[in-house]
Design brief:
By secondary structure, the protein is an alpha/beta fold. It has ten helices and eight strands. Helix 5 (116-129) links the parallel strand 3 (100-105) and strand 4.
Length: 283
């Protein structure tokens, strides 16, 4: 299916600058990857120029095949978690002089705990290396495992993020190996385990959802205690991925931002190029 022509407001930021090159060099030095690169994020250059990155742990192959995502997936046996990765990540974050570190991962359904212990070891290593740092984790659903969520909660990240990505009707098509109600349950359960930790979630718009479906989804998130929200435009990574239904205008994103605040969200980032970790330190 041919791509829809992008409107002017989706012009991508530059990937250049000396600071961006420095970030890339540090990532290579410590053999680390970022979701910024793997997921073809349009803000990669902008964030690298600010000296920020969202670290991708547990490899670069996912056990799921969501139809919106550019990250490679595999049904074969994947490598075991790299035991040295948490410390390398902490060392890289220190060299980058980060004050806010975001840690995410591919989904690892092949692991008994979904990679929760590796997340926790990474949080601990970063905090030990940079005591004053703030840490956000952007996790998969761990197949709804309360034990896995408790491992994350015990590590004590400052923000817990789990994205719904889309509305309930589109979940079976967009995320065929995940479940809308399970993701909501993950967000609610984490609130029980760590009631003082802000919970965050995000949606991509332009997949074919309706206004009433967006509104209902935001209400579902608020009913589960989520207070931080990101809304951004879905961009089709390749012709084999889910097509863009429409490009949502900046004015509409602003309207959703106002409505989300009126629902009780305390932090809302809503614009075409917003992604779940975009300017997370400012949020």
């Amino acid at each position: 299916m041919p791509y829809k022509k992008k409107p002017a407001w989706l012009r991508m930021p530059s990937r250049g600058s000396e600071e961006a090159a420095k970030v890339r060099s540090i990532l290579r030095k410590y053999s680390l990857d970022t979701v910024c690169r793997q997921a073809m994020c349009p803000n990669l250059g902008h964030c690298f120029q600010r000296g920020t990155a969202t670290f991708l742990i547990l490899g670069n192959l996912c056990t799921r095949s969501c139809r919106y995502c550019a990250i490679d997936h595999s049904e074969s046996v994947l490598d075991k978690p790299d035991a040295d990765e948490p410390q390398r990540l902490a060392d890289a974050a220190a060299e980058m002089e980060l004050r806010y570190v975001i840690i995410t991962s591919v989904t690892r359904d092949d692991l008994e705990d979904g990679g929760a212990e590796h997340f926790a070891r990474t949080v601990t290593a970063v905090r030990r290396k940079i005591p004053a740092v703030r840490i956000e984790v952007l996790t998969p659903d761990f197949r709804g495992s309360s034990d896995a969520l408790k491992v994350i909660a015990d590590a004590g990240p400052d923000v817990f993020n789990h994205n719904l990505e889309t509305v309930e009707r589109l979940f079976p098509d967009i995320r065929p190996e995940a479940f809308y109600d399970m993701s909501l349950e993950v967000l609610e359960s984490y609130g029980v385990l760590a009631p003082s930790t802000p919970r965050k979630s995000g949606l991509m718009l332009g997949l074919g959802e309706t206004g009433s479906e967006i509104r209902n989804t935001l209400e579902d998130l608020r009913n589960k205690g989520v207070t931080m929200l990101t809304l951004g435009q879905y961009l089709q990574p390749s012709r084999s991925h889910w097509p863009v239904e429409r490009y949502v205008t900046p004015d509409e994103f602003n309207a959703w931002k106002d409505e989300a605040f009126s629902m009780g969200f305390v932090s809302v980032s809503s614009a075409p190029l917003v992604r779940s970790s975009f300017h997370a330190d400012i949020q």
